Amino acid sequence: MAILPGTQVVLEKVPELTTVRGFLRAAVMTLGALALALTLLLWLERAWPFVALLAQLGVYVLLRWMVSGFFRGRKDRVPYAEALFNRFLPAAGLNAASILFVLLTTSTLAAAADGSQRFVPLALGAVVAVYLLASAMLLVARAVQTAGVDTILGVYVYYPNEGSQLDGPAYSVVRHPLYAALDRLTLAFALWNGSLLALLLATLFLAVWHPVWYGIEERELLDRFGEDYDAYRKRTPAVMPQGLAGERALWQSLFGRATQPSER
Fold first, then answer.
1. Is residue 1 situated within a structural domain?
2. Greatest extent of the chain over all pairs of C-alpha atoms, in Å
3. Whole-prediction pTM value?
4. Burial code of 236-252, b = ≥16 C-beta within 10 A, e = fewer?
5. Which structural domain range is residue 177 located in?
6. Residue (of 95, 93, 108) closest to 197 by Cα position
7. What integer pLDDT is reported at residue 264 of this predicted model?
8. Alpha-carbon distance 57 to 52, whole Å?
9. What is the pLDDT of residues 38-54, one digit of tens each?
10. Domain annotation covers residue 126
């Protein structure tokens, strides 16, 4: 029995994942990219913070190339398994490294203990961070429950005829609950860190890089679903609920029922 929704579909499309070799390959491609990028960014940040900031932008350029390649792969006749291992999973690792870098910049932990390098007061940062983390965890749970691992791993980019409508609660408030969760996680890490550099890194992630990723995905969705998705896009925010009313609606959606469908 599959542990998470959609797992069986992924295993059917990529049988190699059912083997030890395939599992280890997936882990190496994801965690290896994460470890290499995060180690480099932290080393640079301790020696030359400005260079580290430029390196983070370089990571985003590399990410854009990998993500674009993944979504372009079907047209280029790249097998899904190859695109998953060589493009999607390393991109996921690099994305995770970018998020963790926000938390682990050098002004965290020891510096935060005495508040000497904090730009955001510790108490305020902690309270807001906990709120954001709680909503991020619920958004991830809803996204996995509704979309399934198969959708999250881009199966239907390569097998569009096998996709089906999504009718999940969070999708009635934001178009991309998983990206919204990652944005909230990144901002929570920045507030917990409290440094100006962490806030700058989080701003780059939320305002510069992440819209590029889901923008690439949305072009593919528009190509697949046309006017239906375009209408859904026009009436539903991408990742940020609209004002306090939207935030309240998001929390209600996480515990309630969907009010409108989207597409997978």
1. no
2. 57
3. 0.87
4. bebbebeeeeeeebbee
5. 7-263
6. 108
7. 46
8. 9
9. 999 999 988 888 888 89
10. yes
